[in-house]
Amino acid sequence: MDIVTVIDIKYLNTPPTKQVEGNSVDATETAEVTYINKNGVEVVKIYNVVKEDDIYRKVGNGDWIEITECVVTGISAQKLSQLWDLPQKSIVHPILVENSIFDGLVNLSKIQLGHRATFSNVVFRNEVMFNKTRFIGYPSFNNSIFQSKADFSEAIFSGESTFECVNFFKFSDFHDATFKSITSFEGSTFSENSNFDNAIFQNKVIFNSANFLMQTDFRMTKFDENALFSDVKFKNIVNFMDTTFNGTVLFARTLFSDETYFVGVRFIGVSLWAMPETKDISGLNEISFEDTYFQNTVNFSGYYFSHLDLTGCVFERHGLFRDCIIDAATRETYRAIKHQYLKIDNRLDASLFFKKEMEAKRNEKETSILEFIILTLYKYINLYGTKIEYSFITIVPIGIILFFIMVNFGFTECYFEWGCNGWSSFWEVSVETIKYGLLIIYPGHKATDINSAQFNELGSIIHIVLRIYIPLMLFFVLQPLKRYKSW
In terms of Cα–Cα distance, which of 98, 55, 46 is closest to 80? Predict the structure, then answer.
C-alpha cells in the first residue's frame, strides 16, 4: 500500500517548462508539492494542477491517501472520484487527513466513503457537507475544529464513529442521521445550536464531558443501547421531546442551566441521575417530564431541581427520590412522588410530599375560597398531617378552653366551685372536670345525671360543639403518627 505524506504545497506564478510525468503540458496553474514517498525519501515535483485538486490527482495514485500538515483549498466528491477514476457515489479508498487546514468548501455529500475516513486535528474554515453520506468504515473527526456549519444530516455511520474533543463553532446538524455502531462525542463542544432531531443510535453512544452552549435538539431521537451523558453541561434550552431510550441512560453530574424538556419520552431501560459537584446550584435543572413513560427504575436520589414537572408521568416500577431537593413543582409532581414512596411503604417521606401537594393546591389560582379556607385550617392544625406539635398549639388549646367554659359556666346553677366561687380551688376543679366532664359529653350522659344540674343556653351550644370537636381533635392529633406506622 503506497502511503504519501504531503508536507508542503507552493503555488507557482509561472508555469513550468519541464515535463510533468512524461508528458509535455501547458499548465495554466502549477504547484510545487513536497511529499515523502513510501521509502521515506523526500520528493519535490512540479505538477500541473487544477486548484482544489492539486493534492488528490497527483499525490493520491495509490490505494491510500494521507495528508498531513498542509493547507487545502477544498475538496469535493467529484474531485475525489476523479482521483481513483471511480463513480462519484462510490469512493472505497481510505482517507487519512491530519493536522491540516481546509480553507474552502468541503462537499462530500451523497457518496459512500470506504474502509477508513479520518480527519483528525483538522481545521475546517468553511462549510462542511457530509449530508446523506454513507460511512461504511470507521470515520474519525477527533480534535478537529469546524469554524463554519457542519452538515451530517441523513448520514449513515456503519462503523464505530468518533467525534471526540471536536469544536463545532457554528451550527452542527445531525438530524435523521443513523449511527449503527458505537459512537462517541466525548469532550466535544457545540458553541452554536446543535440538531440531533430524529437521529438513530443503534449502539452505545457517549456524550460524556460534552459542552452544549446553545440550544440543543434531540427531539424524536432513538437510543437503542446505552446512552451516557455524564458530566455534560447544557448551557441553554434542551429538547428531548418524544425521544426513546431503550437502554440504560446515565446523567451523572449533568448540568442543565436552562429549560429542559423530556416531554413524551419513553425510558425503557434504567435511568440514573446524579448531581454535579458545584457550589452554586440555584436555578439549575428546570426539567419537565410531562407525559413521560418510565418502564424501568429511575433514580433521582440526591438530585436538585429548581423546577420539576412530572404531570402525566407513568412509573411502571420504582421512581427513587431519596434526598431529592425540589425548589418548585406542580401539584401533580408532588402527588406522583408521594405515590412512589407509598409503593415501598415509606409513609414518612410520602407524607412530606403530601404536605407539598396540599400546599401547592392551596396556592393554585383555581382553588376556590372555601377550599382555601379549609386547606389553611388544615395547614395550621397539624401541617397537613405531618406535625403533631402544631395540634398542641392550635386545636388542643381551643378544645380545652371550650371544655372548661362548658363545665364551669354552662349550667343553670353551680356545678363546680370554680365557676361559682372564683379561682381559689383551681386544682380541685381541674380534677373534677377531668373526672366528670367527659361523662357529660360521652357516652351520652345528661347533665341531670349529676347533681340534677341543667345546661344553660351557653352550655347547650358548647356541648353540641364539643361532641363534634373532640373526635376531630383526636383525629388531627393522632394523624401525624400514621407517618411512622401503617394503621
Answer: 55
